[in-house]
Design goal:
Layout (H helix, E strand, L loop, with lengths): L6 H8 L13 H14 L12 H8 L3 H13 L3 E4 L3 E4 L5 E3 L5 E3 L6 E3 L9 H12 L15 H13 L9 E4 L2 H12 L5 E6 L3 H9 L3 E6 L8 H11 L3 E4 L13 H14 L2 E5 L25 E6 L11 E4 L2 H11 L8 H12 L1 H26 L13 E5 L5 H10 L2 E5 L12 E5 L4 H18 L15
Parallel strand pairs: 5-14, 7-8, 7-9, 9-10, 10-11
Antiparallel strand pairs: 1-2, 3-4, 6-12, 11-12, 13-15, 14-15
Helix pairs in contact: 1-3, 2-4, 2-14, 3-4, 5-12, 6-12, 7-8, 7-11, 9-10, 13-15, 14-15
């Protein structure tokens, strides 16, 4: 069944749709079409969604139907809309574009774009050596069919040992290897979350987690994080008691996108609240290896688990390489077996060769992760210095780990700024991508995964288009002439 967006819903997503660079030089219909393209480019408006009828959208935006008609016509001309008489109009993908790894649209030939939509680095130099060694390890696995839904025992042992070193005694039977952290979350949701069940998440949070919850048609409640201080423990625990969710999803280590680190005391109280409320607690540990300032890390959330309420997920995308699709679930052994049985109907198991590469990389983890931390610290500091010089009115807390900085802007301009930045070769993921219902327009996630020179140049371009936004005039609302 085709999903439909109503006029009021699209109006909320569009927000201040007229706040585009050069708006005072563009007609209303062009500004409206550009705003819809912006929603499509940052993923808040999906492909194949039927847009509201022209009259309905005109009423929701309090503009003329002629303006909407012209905007839809422009979207059809650019390939962003397909219409059929009597049936409606659907969002489409323009020829020559693809879906980027960040979930944003991008032109297929765009080598000069500085992409700040992705919080992940290029591969470490050790990957080539690890891949060659893994190829030498492969022959001993070729005598079987190669389907291993729980993952290779060698890799499960290594991952389990990592948890044990962090203070959570773990065996291989408690580990399921997945094709990335996103699949780990998806499998847990498939197993533990009935369609339409209540879920509690942080706000802001990881956009692809929201997408996975939307696929389960979950009823999402949020706990708002303070941009400067992070979680309010009392409010978070009260939200869990009041909403009584079936599942809660948190990112305790260098939260994406804010970079905050959950204190040990709150972790313990959160697990106790999950137990008393019958809530399954999913802890996303994607950034756990990226403590940047030498701080002592709090114990994993699972340390406080005595009743099998905590499911930990993680992977190798951030400290190692996103192209190596290796993730994992740590849970009670019976749950791992149920996840493996479910996984058979999805993809049968992760590629054997990639798992062997992962074993080799994790054997050299101390060197690789230390080098990655030094690299990321340099890039973070370069981004912070450039922002303080070029955009001093923006406010942010310098993250002590992770790969992204959560900036509070000087106005609700995040989506408009992202559209403007695209025109000067910088791709941004605006604040509303990390929340619900088009909120968070005053915020912007800025990853520091790219080389320092690219980050400095990106900030220079962002600052330039931010100045252009100040030249935008508001919409002109005309009083109808009286004709007698």
């Amino acid at each position: 069944m085709t999903s439909v967006v109503r006029g009021g819903q699209l109006a909320r997503l569009l927000g201040q749709w007229h706040s585009l660079p050069g708006r005072h030089r563009s007609p209303d219909y062009s500004a409206l079409a550009g705003a819809v393209r912006g929603l499509l480019s940052d993923g808040r408006l999906a492909l194949g969604v039927r847009l509201p009828a022209e009259r309905e959208l005109a009423e929701a935006l309090a503009i003329s139907r002629t303006t909407v008609t012209a905007a839809y016509r422009m979207l059809r001309e650019t390939g962003h809309l397909t219409s059929r008489r009597g049936a409606g109009s659907w969002t489409t993908l323009p020829t020559g574009h693809r879906i980027a790894t960040s979930g944003l649209w991008t032109a297929t030939d765009d080598p000069d774009m500085i992409d700040l939509g992705v919080a992940a680095c290029a591969a470490p130099v050790e990957l080539i050596t690890a891949a060659r060694a893994a190829a030498d390890d492969l022959p001993r696995y070729l005598g079987s069919a190669g389907y291993r839904p729980t993952g290779l025992l060698d890799l499960r042992d290594v991952v389990a040992a990592g948890y044990t070193r962090r203070g959570v005694p773990t065996t291989a039977e408690q580990i399921l290897i997945t094709s990335g952290t996103q699949q780990a979350l998806d499998l847990v949701l498939r197993l533990s979350l009935p369609v339409g069940a209540n879920v509690l998440v942080e706000s802001p949070t990881y956009p692809n987690a929201l997408a996975a919850l939307a696929a389960r048609r979950a009823r999402v409640s949020t706990h708002g994080l303070d941009a400067g201080t992070g979680w309010d423990g009392e409010l978070l625990l009260e939200a869990m008691r009041q909403t009584r969710p079936r599942l809660a999803y948190v990112i305790p280590e260098f939260q994406n996108p804010t970079g905050h680190l959950m204190p040990a005391e709150l972790r313990e109280r959160l697990v106790a609240a999950a137990h008393s409320g019958g809530v399954e607690l999913v802890a996303d540990e994607s950034f756990v290896d990226l403590a940047l300032d030498g701080d002592e890390m709090p114990p994993p959330v699972a340390v406080f688990d005595r009743h099998s309420r905590v499911v930990s997920i993680g992977g190798m995308s951030k400290a190692y390489w996103g192209g190596l699709r290796i993730g994992w679930v740590r849970a009670a052994a019976p749950m791992v077996q149920r996840l493996a049985a479910l996984r058979v109907g999805v993809d049968m198991g992760s590629p054997v060769l990639e798992q062997l590469v992962a074993v080799r990389l994790l054997a050299d983890a101390e060197t690789i992760v230390a080098d990655r931390r030094r690299q990321v610290v340099e890039r973070r500091d370069a981004l912070v210095a450039a922002l303080r010089e070029q955009l001093p009115e923006w406010r942010f807390t310098v993250p002590r780990g992770g790969m992204s900085l959560w900036a509070e802007l000087d106005g609700p301009i995040s989506s408009a700024l992202a559209r403007a930045a695209e025109d000067v070769g910088v791709r941004l993921a605006p604040g509303p991508r990390f929340g619900m219902d088009g909120t968070l327009e005053r915020f912007l996630r800025l990853p520091y995964a790219l080389p320092a020179d690219d980050l400095v140049e990106a900030v220079r371009r962002i600052a330039a288009v931010r100045h252009d936004l100040d030249q935008v005039t508001g919409p002109t609302w005309r009083t109808p002439a009286v004709i007698a």
